[in-house]
Every structure is written in structure tokens, then in C-alpha cells.
Amino acid sequence: MPINPIFNPEGDDKIENRSLWFGNVTNLMQLNDVRYPWAIALYQQMREQFWIPQKLDVTQDVTDYWNLTPEERRGFDGILSYLTFLDSIQTCNIPHLKSCITAPEVALCMAEQTSQEAMHSASYQYMIESIIPAERRNEVYDFWRTDKVLFERCKFVAKLYQNYLDQPSAENYFISLVADYLLEGLYFYNGFIYMYNLASRMLMPGSADIFKLINRDELSHVRLFQRIIPEAMEVLPHSQDLVYELFDAAVSQEIKWSNHIIGNQILGITEASTEQYTKYLANSRLRAIGLEAIYPDEKFKKSPYAHLERFSDTKADGNTKANFFEAGVTSYVMSSGLTGWDEI
Ligand SMILES: [Fe+2]
Ligand SMILES: [Fe+2]
Questions:
Q1: Which CATH superfamily is domain 56-316 in?
Q2: What is the pLDDT of residues 173-187, one digit of tens each?
Q3: Which residues surround ligand 1, an ion (CB under 5 A)?
Q4: Could you give the residue ranges of the DSSP H alpha helices within the chain?
Q5: Residue 327: what pLDDT?
Q6: Which of 83, 204, 300, 328 is most buried as measured by Cβ atoms within 10 A of its Cβ?
Q7: pLDDT digits (tens, 9 = 90+) for 80-94
Q8: Structural domain boundaries in the chain
């Protein structure tokens, strides 16, 4: 795929000549007139979601951690390890995808996305350092080294990105886009559900507060790729069958990992509900990019965790919700402080 030059004085930024890829751009962020207005709206929303993990209180979680069952603690630790990996490779890979994007308004969203992914990794580190006792922390950071299932999972996820870097063809770029969508739209959610499950049982409320903000960010990334992938299917060489195969492989991998780290040991989660939820998500993510659901069974048309939805904070304007166990509103809108920057 052609990588954008740093600066191309011969470029043409006219909106009628803009395209997501293969445009002749100056590579300036010319945003006064845009070809894809949805990207400006999405960027605005992503900025308004700005938050800082350290502003969220996890003191209750420090006590709760020792009231978890050993299986619940293992799940909590393992999910933090896995999500640290996912956000780490996102921070690394999004700039590679962005380097070929020739619509600056879409590049803008990807720049913001990269920043959010890095901040998510910082939030996991904040949770690990604040909640998990010192003697266990290294095990969490190194879990991918010691746990074979997680290691295989990490290698599988990273490989699809690495393939494009090794062979930067348009086909591999397309696969990397789909792999990104799978990560944003499928891989996080059994982990999110796990945290909402604990919160629904009055456990680890600070972590759940952080996860619902990460969840909200991830859904804005899902929306970004739900715009990008249908465009990619118009202009980039690809095979629809391959997309279905990638989804099916991703679903099997995700179920295998979730059963390994959560299994049947957690109240309210079973191997059957994990399978149902993962396939339900895959179906809905496929439909959102104009493809067919691959799991036609009736039970995969609905989420087994609908009762936990109230714990997520995923509305576009979701900045006025209360903390799980408090009547008061604890979320905040940092963007409302924009007028105060002059004081700095
Ligand atoms: Fe993230
Ligand atoms: Fe993301």
C-alpha cells in the first residue's frame, strides 16, 4: 500500500478528489472542508469522551480483591494481562493503518484512537498497581510468558497485523483492517462482561467504572471501522469468504481463551453463555459492515448478558451516569473545562 509522504506540495486536497486510500494528498490536516463529515462528528465525540484513569477511585477494589474467590482473582488478573496486550498492539498498529489513509478527517480519528489505546494500557497499569498486591503484579505483567493459551492467543492476534508489515500488499492491508475490527469489536467484550458481572455482585466497582469508560472508547473505534471497512470492500482487493473465515477463527479463539480464564467457575458466566455471547457479537459486527451473520441459530440473535447492559456506559452522551454504588454523579466531562486552559 502506498504510504503518504510527509509533505507533498503537488498534492490535491480538493474534496471532490479525496478518497480514503490512493488519494494525491498534500498530507496537511486540511479540515475546513471535508469529504467524510461523519469523521469530524466521530472525532468530536471521541474528544468529548476524554478521561483520566487516576481520577477514578479504586479503593474499594483493594479490599474486594481479597474477597474474590481464587477463580475470580485469576480471571481478574488474566483479563488485565490479555487486555494490556490488546491495547499495546493497537497503539503500535493503528499508525501503520493510518499511514495510507488519504482523507485527513479519517486520519484525525485514527490519531485520537491511538492516543486512547495508549491511555487504556496506562489504565490497566493503574489498576494492576493500585489493586493487585505487589507480590502478584509481575505474574500479571508476565502472564503471557507463562500461560500457553494466552501466548498462543497473543501470537494469533499479532500475526495478522505483522503479515501486513512483512508484506505490505493491499490484500494484507485489508486483512489488517478486519483484524482491527475483530479486536475492537469482539476481543474485549468477554473481559468487559466479566467486570460488569463482578460489579453486579457489588464487587470491584472502581474497576468496573474504568472498564465502562474503556468500553465506551472501544465502541467509538468500532464505529470508525464500521465506516472504513465497507469503503475498503469497495476499493481494496479482498475475499468475502476470507472475512467469514477470519471471523470464525476469531470466535473459536476468543471462546477458547475465555473458557480458559473464566470457564464455568464464575457465578453468572458459563461456557455456554460465553459461546452465545461471542457468536451473538460476531453476528452483529458482521451485519454492521453489510455482511451476513455466520451463526444462524436463534440463540445467537440475542445477548445472554442483556441484564448487565445497565453497567456499561456506552451511550454517546454517557457522561452523566452515576457510579455503580453511589447516587451521586461521578463521571465528568473534561471538555467542559476547555475554556480554562488559558490559566495553564
Ligand atoms: Fe483500547
Ligand atoms: Fe480500540
A1: Ribonucleotide Reductase, subunit A (1.10.620.20)
A2: 999 999 999 999 999
A3: 87, 117, 120
A4: 37-48, 59-67, 70-98, 104-131, 134-141, 143-146, 148-166, 170-182, 189-200, 205-235, 240-261, 271-288
A5: 33
A6: 204
A7: 999 999 999 999 999
A8: 56-316
